[in-house]
Amino acid sequence: MPLLVTHPAVKAGEPAGSPRQMMQVLVVHAEALKRQLETQQAERDNLRFQLRLLQRDKSERQPSWLEQQVAYLEAENRNSAAVQDESDRLARRLKAVEAALAELDAQPSKVKAAAEEAQVLEDEDDINLARWECRNVERRLEQARSYNRALMEDLCRKRNRDEPLEEASAEEDPEMADVVSQNTQTLRRLREEVATASRASAPQPPAEPRPNARGRATRGGASVDVLTIGVGPGGGDVEWHKDASTSRQ
């Protein structure tokens, strides 16, 4: 590329070949060289790109590269056949599903009957399970009632056995009498609570005889003829005396 240098006009009054004039000439030359350098760099980049293209074309003309491309094409052909087979299989399944749906739509009564039968079987299983659980609960309830009755009988026997001894010792010692009185009240209160809890938890079976105790003992200056347990108000005991009929709870 030819380098054209234009000499600036010499100002009037400046001698030819002065330093200012030479500086202007050098600046013009520098700008021209800079533009020429940029042009050469652009041409170099273009040549490098063309060289890469030529190298790729040369490598693609090699037998190894051609064999590799042939292998890729054969693999694609095999994959295409597999994809086509899968597509055909899915199409057949889709047709089968559509036919089944059409058959179900044409027979809604059969579908409803089958659903009702399945629901009946499921309900029957639930009913059997509920019956089994109910039997277990009834058996546990009966065991609890038997255990409660046994506790009440033991408590009554212990009370009837211990009360005469406690009252006899209470007549000898006033302090002991107070202790015995408190213990007796506590036992009666506990007996009432047990009876109340028993009635609240489960009703007693009909016609079941109540535990009772009969005997004679000296109590408060009166003779006890009959002691009936759990028949008084609040589940208390009733004592029938020989001299006068009085009720104690």
From TrEMBL:
Is the Coiled coil keyword given for this protein?
yes
Assigned keywords, A-Z? Coiled coil
Compositional bias of type Acidic residues: which residue ranges?
A: 164-176
Recorded coiled-coil stretches? 23-107
Superkingdom assignment: Eukaryota
Q: Where is the composition biased (Basic and acidic residues)?
A: 238-249
Q: Does the keyword Coiled coil apply?
A: yes
Region spans: Disordered: 162-249
Q: What is this protein called?
A: Uncharacterized protein
